[in-house]
Amino acid sequence: MVINPTYLAQRTRQSINWADAQKRVLQSYREWLRSAPEIQTMYSLNIPVARLRTKMRQEFERHRYVNQIGVVDMLLFQSHTEYQETLNYWKQLPHILKYFRAEEDPNARRPQNFMSGFLEGRN
């Protein structure tokens, strides 16, 4: 497999207005949903495609009520960066599974600071 760093690369741009931003968000959302089966096979995930798509939707829904166009553009840039890194196989399995950690272990939480995590025996 030849590594092509420009595969899926896009130029960064700003949205002209809210209609343009909405169109770009829907386009990004559809790209993610269409790539779910490929992500499942590429990373050999033991997770059904429907659950992957549900998690993708939840990630988009987290930012549903953002009302500043600059923030929407920044979130779109981050989304496309994640998409490119995922489909280029630049991530490892733990990077993908971190999105499902809260569902697997309901008591999972990040330590408040380094020292409390250290004293709990967590890394």
Question: SSE layout and pairings?
Answer:
Blueprint: H1 18-34, H2 36-42, H3 49-61, H4 69-87, H5 93-97, H6 101-104, H7 114-120
Please tag this protein with its features.
123 residues; mainly alpha; 7 helices
Percent of residues in beta strands: under 5%
Describe the largest sheet: none
Q: Could you spell the SSE succession in H and E letters?
A: HHHHHHH
Silhouette: globular
Number of helical regions: 7
Q: Mind telling me the C-alpha Rg?
A: 17 Å
Query: Helix amount, in percent?
Result: 55-70%
Structural class: mainly alpha
Low-confidence stretches are none
- Report the count of strand segments: 0
Arithmetic mean of pLDDT: 87
Q: How far apart, in Å, are the first and last alpha carbons? A: 35 Å
Q: How would you describe what is shown here?
A:
The chain is mainly α and 123 residues long. It is built from 7 helices and no strands. α1 packs parallel to α4. The radius of gyration is 17 Å and the shape is globular. The chain starts with 17 loop residues before the first helix and ends with a helix. The model has no long low-confidence stretch (mean pLDDT 87).
Question: What is this entry, summarized?
Answer:
Helix content is 59%, strand content 0%. By secondary structure, the chain is an all-alpha fold. 7% of the residues are buried.
